[in-house]
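Sharing a chain and its predicted structure for anyone who wants a worked example. Both blocks are below, sequence first, tokens second.
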Amino acid sequence: MRLRAPARAQSPYTSSQQAAPVKDEEVCPLEARIRVRLTPRADRNEIAGWQGDVPRVRVTAPPVEGRANAALERLLASALDLPKGAVRVVSGAQSRDKTVAIEGVSQDEALRRLRELRPS
């Protein structure tokens, strides 16, 4: 006895009729990726300044079990006025130099907002 594969469903579009294209914003929301230099076990949580184009961030949390990374994510989300889930460490989890993905803002906008917080 031979088994047959189920019949394929036919496309609702004919060969001359195509689906409307989807805008890029709908497929890929804005996401910025910035590099950060993190100092754990600091006296306070702050964006301490800039080292070239890289913000230097200090957090009070120790670098144990991802607590410093979580503090960094919360601090950047608060500074950028974004939800906590919009910021995440994507590389450098066990290093001081990290790459952070920020959803909902462009690269230029994220850097502009962080530069406005520069300490005097």
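Comments welcome. The two ends are 81 Å apart (CA to CA).
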